[in-house]
């Protein structure tokens, strides 16, 4: 028995010595690899794991290729959505008053290198999500008197797909907050000399559940500007038409009145207000909000 105990202790000491000799990548080298770009992330993870650790084979069912969206089908849906937007009475009115409202799709103006990392313009863009780049109409009013900043209002129209849900069948409330924040930032950009404002506070009141595969209108207005601070408020509504719908040569729905913002069945899903502040380091930031 005594000999067995000695042998057990000897084996335990040998195991501890061998595990202490397991090689890890130095912290400095990992940091250097990260600086060389995301393509080296696999190398970083390999060197961060002890060399003695065995690899585990990935189950075959996890290696199956994920289905990729049909590009032709996605483009067809985008054409349908564009056609629907052009038939919305509110959009027709905004386009007719082009002297008062400037139409833009600001996310498309962001350089591709930056846009791919932009949350709304890149990460949330695509089939089933924000399939169509949001439209925005901006109106800026000149200051009424010297020393006062100009205010502005924005109307944004966009479609929310079915892959941005929280509870099944309902759009994630966090997405609504993100879209409020995005449009509000565009709205207050006219109030600051740099065209840049950062969110200091955002309050969202959710009124009704938001549904996927619907067209939405978000209206925002800058209500007060004081130096480097600007207050903005707005609301978000969806049309009762469930999209996408079959597209014919003339119209996208049997009843065009359904595309009215105040149509029966239109639902205001949320209201919000926010405070934005022009950062002191705005000159060093890349401007993506000026329209």
Automatic annotation (TrEMBL):
Gene3D superfamilies hit by this protein: Hotdog Thioesterase
Pfam families found in the cross-reference section: 4HBT
Domain called Thioesterase: residue spans: 169-230
InterPro entries: HotDog_dom_sf, PTE-AB_protein, Thioestr_dom
Superkingdom of source: Eukaryota
Name of the featured protein: Thioesterase domain-containing protein
Native organism: Penicillium argentinense
